[in-house]
Amino acid sequence: IYRIQELLNSGEGYIGQTVTVAGWVRTVRDQKNLCFIELNDGTSFGGLQIVVEDKIGNFEQVAKTNTGFSLKVTGNIVKSPAKGQLIEMLHEVVIIGQADPEEYPMAKGVQKPETLRQKAHLRPRGNFFSAVTRIRNNLAYATHVFFQNNGCLYIHTPIITGSDCEGAGEMFRISTIFDNDISKIPQIKGKVDTAQDFFKKEVNLTVSGQLQVEHFCISMSNVYTFGPTFRAEKAHTHRHLAEFWMIEPEFAFADLFDNMEAAEGYVKFCINYILQNNIDDLQFLDKRVKPGLIDYLKDIVSKDFVRCSYTQGIDILLKAQQAGAKFENSDIKWGMDLNSEHERFIAEKVFQRPVFLYDYPKEIKAFYMKVGTDDGKCVRAMDMLIPQVGELIGGSQREERYDVLAQRIKECGLKLEDYGPYMDLRKYGTVPHCGFGLGFERLVMMVTGVENIRDVIPFPRYHGSAEF
Ligand code: 4AD
Ligand code: MG
Fold it and tell me: Percent helix, strand and coil across the chain, each rounded to 5?
């Protein structure tokens, strides 16, 4: 069975050959002695035009197929006389699965993303979500290509962990059903331990693989992890999920500015990869979802990203406010944590391209960030802010000095004994190192122009919803 993408991309390479394809019907046009079927197998945005002549045995049934039927078709590839279609295929059609047009929602026309969110099985069947899915796939692929080409090792960090990397207390604690009420399940009573008994400690789903990936960085140099992460955030925004994927590289013998350079190179590599490999999907999204998307992406890769310190950022916001800009949170002052409206203002209105904001007050950042030289008020943190999306990346140079880190852990109200191996990294052959975390769904949002994060992940999990 040939992939339709391969046939469409082959130009005239397959003309004259007999091939078999299999996929799902998008549209059927029935004329007297002919019927035209657009068959799509998900491998490309466009489908293959199948011309079926009434000389085949089951013409009647084939002509009556509808959106959603699954078919296997064998025929000859011929040059299409119609404009814009390179290849058509002639007959022999096996109907595999049916889809009653009275019942099948996709047969009734385009469905809204909000409706589809509740119906997981329908999502990839339409143009919108299948385009997003192909781009998502290629962004994951480009991620591995980029880091592998740059000599980084892929480290699989654990999903079950006892640590809270960000110290934000947004962890999903793991328990078994036996934690709830053992007496209700008498037949299995006493047979299984609670999660805490099982691991001999309390554990949670990871909020970040950073602390673990640092262990490998301090001996294997440049490494990265790419996996699911979990945050029990009750945020109902267009950019928060409870389960999302994160890419976290960690670089040895490197500082904050090396970190920014790597992050910029990585994001640009991903965008270029999609511009080169998903142009049909981008054209559809440009037309239907975000007008100007392709030009916007080309613009991003053609310019340097901005580097702007937190202190400069606050100045910019204050000056904008004096000039009449309105913010919901209008109490702008040095030391505050920036809201997404502030972040977006800086990226969207002021610079109109991605911006690294760096050197943040230590009070609003995590314990592991390197304390800077500016009287120790700031840490060497960086966030990459993107127009429309807001924060795409959070990263930092790590505190590699044992004593300073021990002090920070205490200041942050954490227990030193919980960080034994992490502290040992600073005891034996410590080196300056840095890294960042990129929220994969936010990257997909940026590249597809999709506004709601729930529409760029196959099975979104967020406060109040975990469909299927
Ligand atoms: O800024 P964060 O919390 O940084 C870390 O977790 C660091 N340990 C990363 C590191 O240095 N290795 O999260 C990193 C990124 C954010 O910039 C954002 O893109 C994404 O993860 N993110 C979320 N994406 C979707 N839903 C959520 N609830 C997210 N929380 C963070
Ligand atoms: Mg952050």
Answer: 35, 25, 40
